[in-house]
Amino acid sequence: MTREMTEPAADSPTLDLSLAPTPPMGWNNWNTTHDRPEFNEEMVLATADFFVSSGLADVGYQYINIDDCWALPDRNSHGDLVPDPVRFPNGIKAVADYVHSKGLKFGIYTSAGVHTCSPIGFPGALDYEEQDAALFASYDVDYLKYDNCHNEGRDAVERYTKMRDALLATGRPIVYSICEWGQNKPWTWAKGVGHLWRTTGDISDTWESLLELTKLNMALAEYAGPGHWNDPDMLEVGNGGMTDVEYHTHFSLWAIMAAPLLIGSDLRTVTPATMEILLNTELIEVDQDPLGIQGAPIRSEGGLHVFVKPLVDGSRAIALFNENDGPAEISTTAAEIGLESASSYLVRDLWAHTVQESSGAVSADLPAHATAVFRVAAS
Ligand code: GLA
User: Fold this and answer.
1) Atom 8, ligand 1: which residue's CA is nearest?
2) Ligand 1 centre distance from Cα of residue 184 (Å)
3) What secondary structure does DSSP assign to 101-153, as a single string?
4) What are the structural domains, with CATH classification, of the chain?
5) What is the DSSP track for 204-240?
6) Are β-strands 354-358 and 345-349 bridged in parallel, bridged antiparallel, or unpaired?
7) Nearest to 175 by CA among 64, 288, 81, 42
8) Each residue of 190-249: pLDDT tens digit?
9) CA angle (142, 285, 198) in 5-degree steps
10) Cα torsion at 120, 210, 347, 289 (round to 10°)?
11) Is 9's pLDDT higher than 60?
């Protein structure tokens, strides 16, 4: 019998999908620091401390991930990447050890190109895949974000698969995040290559960006599931460019779309309003539901959206999202969201944390840009 060209050879390595049974949760510095000097060891260690002291770790956030600019612009005489001694005076292994000592996991970044994305021009891993993967494993890294800059026009599937194989060859379990911005439709080929893949360009801390990324990502629900997630980019919650209502919408939509929840703010200066969003365990439960279904709109008309996400206990999470610049009422029914017929339903409001009984109708009066999230089940 001849083997189909697309099937992996029997001895080819396979990605361990069980490393990301639900969308990864954690923190990454990029959205708050970009390449500025405050991205350094002190910040990363303080963030790990805060994960534990604030309760973020208790509700499921576990990865402390560092982004671009952690290395020097040149490899050493052995061809190895070298941590920037100003930002990371004790190296990266010491940071990983500290993060691990807190019961957390540690992630690192590089690019599937000759340089990373920063204009400073740090070295990327293209043609250094085995060497860099081995270095990351020697740091005890648990997560790699692999970017797409300076790729010299080389084939994306080959570049990302080569790093997958290099990571597997280290023998260390490492969650593999493909940051290819959706350019080559990774949702069509990256299941089994990476655990998650960016579906969009970079988020910025604006309402327009949030809306654009939501619309791209919400059309791709069928491609996501346990061990293979769509990634509409990291959270901007708390970074100051959007209103409180818009940040509630951001977190609501990421949760209903089973997106990775990677906090992108400086937790050393976080406000109670931001923490109230990040610590909403009822929304985290929706995001992390073990069925792993990405919620999708069953109705989108005139900027008013009804998202539905089936949950493992048979209930449905729904997000009623008003993208418009004025207030609106959005309504749906138990039948429309796919629940079996019953004489009454329990409707739990996941922001107000209240329950109401209903004979089937669910609706919300929403200010501009607001989202209500409910969990609905037959009572
Ligand atoms: C790209 C990525 C971002 C970030 C920067 C770092 O733009 O998409 O998420 O990692 O590079 O330079």
Assistant:
1) 202
2) 17
3) HTT-EEEEEEESSSB-SSTT--B--TT-HHHHHHHHHHTT--EEEEE-TT-TT
4) 17-287 (3.20.20.70), 296-378 (2.60.40.1180)
5) -SSHHHHHHHHHHHHTTGGG-BTTBEEE-----TTSS
6) antiparallel
7) 64
8) 999 999 999 999 999 999 999 999 999 999 999 999 999 999 999 999 999 999 999 999
9) 50
10) -30
11) no
pLDDT at 2: 41
CA 50 to centroid of chain Cα atoms: 20
Q: Are 110 and 66 in contact (CB under 8 A)?
A: no
Rounded CA gap, 44 and 266, in Å?
Answer: 10
313 classed as catalytic = no
Distance CA 35, CA 378 (A): 50
> Which residue of the set 35, 80, 165, 202 is catalytic?
202
Pocket test for ligand 1, best of 67, 144, 239 (most atoms within 8 A of CB): 67
Residue 51: both structure tokens together? 């994960």
Task: Identify residue 277 by its one-letter amino acid code.
Answer: I
Helical spans, DSSP H, in 279-345: 281-287
Mean pLDDT of 268-275: 97
